[in-house]
User: What shape does this take?
Amino acid sequence: MSLILETIQTEGIAQLSYLIGDDGSGTAAVIDPRPDVEVYVEIARKWGLAITHILETHIHADFLSGSRELADRVKTARIYVSVEGGATYAFEHEPIEDGARFEFGQMTLTARHTPGHTPEHMSYVACEKKRPRTPWGVFTGDSLFVNSAGRPDLMGHDQVESLAEQLHDTLYSFFLGLEDDVIIYPGHGQGSPCGAEIGDRLTSTIGYERRFNPFLQLPDRTAFKDYVMSTPPPEPTYYKRMKRINAAGPEVLGRLPVPRGLPPAAFRASIGTDDVVVVDTRSMLAFGGGHIAGALNIAGSPELSIWAGWLLEPGTPAFLVLDRDEDAPAVVSLLLRIGFTNVAGYLLGGMAAWAKAGFELAAIDQMDVHELKAHADDVAIIDVRSSDEWKQGRIPGAAHVFLPEVQTRWAEIDKQKPVAVYCNSGYRASVASSILKAEGFDVRNVPGSWAAWVGAGFPVEPVTTEAEVR
Assistant: This one.
């Protein structure tokens, strides 16, 4: 008889979920499932386990919960959610409070109320059944991360101070009360906006975090609150919508949505109105070489999830342009993770078919960093990285417009000059370039962007005042 524990890493949104069970009893739990749930079904099948419990740590803001989808798929599991802090839900569930205990063969999970990120937040402490007072691990959700902790500001300004105080108690009274060798299994890894500067390891120990996690070096409540309220990264615009959907209960789809493929003429007719968006998921260079006028370029890597969440309106139908027709399911999965299901179709045969049909092409010039340096005085340089990245240094003469703000702040950018856009690698710069191109700018994308500029050894300009960071 063996413990089965597998971590499911969802890149892009940097989310971590877990399947944990016992092959002797043949039972397992899934903690914080994502909405494309086949991965859990396949893991359970591989180990000969029945998923009997679906455990949520809290009402998620950053991705669409897969709990209802997974329960519908496997038919053997109940959904368990915290009702601490007054949390309510509009879907069928089993309510749990602090101290709820679940057995899986020789292993137990005990729910512990760990508020601060949200009022209802639960962590799950893992013990061997024969050693119930000696935890070996804890699934921390969004309360404690590697090198970080959950942000307390997602419930609104009126709750941020009280949640910061609760987070202090959670970290210092509960987590630091555990033994140093207890392994932590967090709900997110590096890159998630749910915490500030989350570390790049997927697990840690209480002892290691006790020594090095900056959130655990501030026992004074006031100092802790000042720190935790000043560190959160920008909140993505879709977070509040996700919380509402997850509390109400996401729609059960039964399977991954399959968008219809449209030949070029039908695709062109379908996008001929102002109430749709064309999302081109090809790479920046392919998009720059030729695309449908007005298309938004969000390349189909895992990062698509978070930037689609920032930039797409859920009620606006999206038509996709893909590298290959067979990429449609993968892109739909990336969109589903942030609750976007309004995919109306995709272009059959991609841009090659569009070009062969004789339809119009738009293009965006690519300006490498050597050309940018040589012609820096002739272009308006726009940096679309985050404020934290901007604070570390910039290309001389650049102005800062964070990518999600380009849609609302483009009028501030001077159209009298060509515009050159950069980020860290070129991915976000191409997204911003596509927005500016659609607004009539003479725009150039900078492939390689900041990384290429620094790699070439070109001079950088530090930010000297907070007023320069917007």
Summary: Residues 396 and 461 are 5 Å apart (CA to CA).
